């Protein structure tokens, strides 16, 4: 009975080109995800430039002005609609 059992390794077919492509693609995808997660976790110090400081308040003022203009534009039609009633 012991001679009937075959404990040799089963024959495994060689992986095809598409299987290899899929396997290495999964490895590259995992590596890319690790790089992205590390980019979020590890802070990168930004170089401190003198020119960037004066431009920041200007950009903040520019963003505030359109919001104020949009709010006043929204209020005008409502007042005109009330006058028509």
TrEMBL record:
Residue stretches of biased makeup (Basic and acidic residues): 49-64
Protein name as annotated: Mannosidase beta like
Gene encoding the protein: MANBAL
Pfam family, one: UPF0239
InterPro entries: UPF0239
Span list, region Disordered: 49-85
Topology in membrane: Single-pass membrane protein
Alphabetized UniProt keyword annotations: Membrane, Transmembrane, Transmembrane helix
Chain segments annotated as transmembrane: 21-42
GO cellular component term, pick one: membrane
Stretches with biased composition (Basic residues): 75-85
